[in-house]
Specification:
The protein has 408 residues and is mainly α. The protein contains 17 helices and five strands.
Length: 408
């Protein structure tokens, strides 16, 4: 287990490497300057792991830095400085993700892949309406909850399929070509305006959100970081190639239903918002599931035997767990905020990008919280930290100056 002292040292190093007022795309800072309790330590570890993964992306600011781009670019991607964070990556993976993977492998042990598919596919395709969407239909704060969903999902979707692209490079036979065709769909077949991340940006803007990559990093919940770190873990480790197939199998099938639910919700309650991102997924992911089964899984089993099929199942079960954790936490946050509104202790508000305040978990708020308002993602503001202490584990908030607490 990585000790708090090491995380504090890494936090200081990343802050120094980021420099003053870094572009959001190159901001490497994590919330470990003050680790009040174990929940904040866990959060900072999740942040550090995602920073390590994102370091492999080519990221450019939306506009060039004031004093020029090249020097800042070379500093950000300096190999010696990058190696310090990379050295922490495997210990973080071993602590944060591997135990869940081993649980998924235990579930997969002894299962027949064909039988697994016969149960999995209809259970996902015939699932009831997405629980989050169902909840929104009855919530007066539905618009604020939905923009928080967009914020939390932006950790992955503003660079959609970039993680999975790292799992395609190399040489591993016909399955690689099928995976690359799926990747082409995600990248709009080279037409920038059709790129899925570009479509997602449009939806974010329609809800009044900033669309900069990592623009809302300070408000990513702990559970959000856990979800996206798991995806990166699968695709940034070549030894996980067969687990990746399981992720795609589960995710592409689940998205068929969930994205259709999102599309219908947006058309009903936010008809002026751009819903093309969700309409595109509801359509294309039908084909992606077929491709994963017929053109990826089948030839890999034929070439390498049934032992790889167990890894497909383990990857799918790991994905099931992190998706379910994120969904449960999302619903619990909605319910907690709506209860606070009903009690007169909360109001909807956009996060203040200029005055972030200190980061808090519910546990640290209970122990060390003060009287300042707390911003919860893109939902809104709570009257004080003691209200936030009642929120579900895995939520992350930030204190705000009282004079900025305006309803939006």
């Amino acid at each position: 287990m990585i000790a708090a002292a090491r995380m504090l040292a890494m936090s200081a190093s990343l802050a120094a490497r980021s420099g003053p007022s870094p572009p959001q795309a190159w901001d490497l800072r994590i919330d470990a300057s003050e680790l009040a309790d174990d929940s904040q330590l866990w959060h900072s570890k999740q942040q550090a792991l995602l920073r390590a993964y994102q370091a492999r992306y080519v990221l450019l600011p939306q506009s060039g830095p004031t004093h020029g781009l090249l020097e800042r670019l070379r500093h950000h991607y300096d190999p010696q400085q990058m190696s310090e964070l990379e050295a922490l990556r495997w210990p973080l993976e071993a602590e944060l993700i591997v135990p869940r993977l081993e649980s998924a492998r235990a579930i997969a042990a002894g299962q027949d892949f064909e039988g697994y598919l016969q149960t999995l596919l209809p259970s996902l395709r015939n699932a009831p309406e997405n629980p989050f969407i169902h909840y929104l239909r009855g919530s007066p704060q539905r618009a604020a909850h939905y923009r928080n969903f967009l914020l939390q999902s932006s950790a992955d979707l503003l660079a959609e399929a970039s993680a999975s692209a790292l799992g395609v490079i190399g040489e591993f036979g016909p399955a690689q070509s099928a995976l690359f065709r799926i990747l082409l769909d995600e990248f709009g077949h080279g037409i920038h305006e059709r790129k899925h991340s570009v479509l997602y940006r449009t939806t974010m803007r329609d809800f009044g959100l900033c669309d900069s990559y990592n623009g809302y990093w300070p408000w990513f919940d702990t559970v959000t970081l856990e979800l996206h770190n798991t995806i990166h873990f699968l695709f940034q480790n070549p030894r996980n190639i067969f687990l990746q197939v399981g992720f795609l199998l589960f995710a592409e099938t689940a998205y068929q239903r969930s994205t259709a639910d999102h599309w219908r919700y947006l058309r009903e309650f936010h008809p002026n918002s751009d819903a093309r991102y969700f309409a595109e997924h509801a359509h294309i992911d039908l084909h992606h599931t077929r491709m994963v089964i017929e053109e990826v899984a089948a030839p890999l089993i034929a070439a390498h035997g049934k032992e790889v099929a167990a890894e497909f199942i383990a990857g799918a079960e790991l994905t099931r767990r992190v998706f379910a954790d994120a969904e449960r936490q999302q619903l619990a946050v909605c319910a907690a905020f709506d209860l606070a509104v009903a009690q007169g202790k909360a109001w909807t508000a956009l996060p203040n990008l200029l005055q972030m305040g200190a980061g808090l978990t519910p546990a640290s708020a209970a122990q060390h919280g003060g009287t300042l308002p707390v911003q919860v993602g893109a939902i809104g503001m709570l009257a004080d930290a003691q209200v936030f202490a009642n929120f579900p584990v895995g939520t992350y908030g930030r204190t705000q100056p009282r004079d900025t607490a305006a309803t939006q």
